[in-house]
Amino acid sequence: MKVTFTGNAFRLLLPALFSLLGCGPGLAQSGFPGRSVQGEVEAGGLVSTDRATPFWLRTNLYGIVPLESPIVTLRASLRREYGRLDTTRAARRFDWGFVVNPVVNAGRENGLLLPEAFVKVKYGMIELFGGRRREVIGLGDTTLTSGFLIGSGNALPIPKIQIGTRGYASLPFLGRFVAVSASFGHAWFNVPYIRGAYLHQKHLYLRFGKPRSRLKVHAGINHQVQWGGEAEYLKGPAGLSANGKLPSSLKDYGFIISAIVPGNWAERGYISFDSYKIGNHLGSYDFGLEFNTRQGNLMLYHQHPYEDVSSLLFMNFPDGLWGFSWANVPPLTRSPAFRLERLTLEYLMTVDQTASTFYVPGSSYQGADNYFNHGQYKEGWSYRNRSIGTPFLAPITNYRPEVQAQSGGFFPNNRVRMWYAGARGLVKNRVGLTLRASYSQNFGTIPVPYAAAIGQFSALAGAEIPLSRWPNTVLTTSLAVDGKGMFPAAAGGFFSVRKRW
Question: In 130, 160, 181, 248, which residue has its Cα 20 to 30 A from 189's Cα atom?
Fold first, then answer.
């Protein structure tokens, strides 16, 4: 949800929020044991040497940071989590919760966003929720990743209703050696360019190894489908739709969730464009190997993309996200002056795409997968001008004008090689430090390749400093830099004060 407003309204909100941040120590008891409702307020600002916000200051933040700077931002959240904060008591089998998270931005683009506003209920390990909820899609390091392949948390969450497990649910009849994570959801793809479009989502992952086993193996698949909707651009001789409308009735739903089209598709009223698949189907196979020791947790993972049958059969290998993550176990004795908490290394490859042509000689399968682009959904796998998947495959408007001029398609650069390193540490068991750095080689698309590969370096250094005079209050600072390439050369910083109660 987004609502625009005037600068005067923003100035009226600013003193009120700072008065909340200035609550005295007597009102800020740590955690409020026994209370299940928690709150948070944050006030901050972002500046940059260029109009464009540096990459790592806006990436994987659920669309709440504008593409252009400077900005002033006010953020708040109110939530009720499952169970009690008193962890000595067993969790209730039935429970409920909610989150409301408004964000107010003022600058080149003023607005009110709701990246989270949902209600959830659970019974045992089964959960039902409805609304906007911050999520990522896939297996890997959710805390320090460069961005998961299919669902990275880069775009504003899409409103939906979903039923599924709460993480992994062990199967007692198999000795808890096998655990299942699954979900089934329906979302409303409410974007300006097409009316009445939907999103179907589901996933199924298996974990092999008991909860306390040193070695665990993960494997699974997720499936995403944009479907339905109507728009003027769908009309015309291109054969994208019948009268500007895409299949969106209940009788179409079985073909959406099964990804199967009947042989008599013409008799059922479908056009030739829909004879392959009804809607825009994509997703990933995910694999992980987890190893636990007394010193820490190590995980190796791979997310393999698919958009058609050829990629389902791994004909686009080695495309995908490859990752290594190491999480350190806190020492039982006194902590050192500096401790590395987590290290993540990732490599993204999207260059293969099965073949360089759509029709592959001697094969019944198609190539030129053209990731995230789609003919019927002209803005592809994006939501409100942000990539839903990895931020390294971005909409054309995210790039500098000189790059836009030599590009084609809404996702003009989906052939990428990218190397990423992220680290998180703790100084004197108090100050948190985060480092991120990425370098990518960008080749455009198969239909419109760049004349030469464009390199892009981006980095960020951040710190979270508790303010001892104000309990539960943290000063956050982040400095980021972009080298000239896909983005303008720029340096910028974000500073905020955050209070929890």
Answer: 181
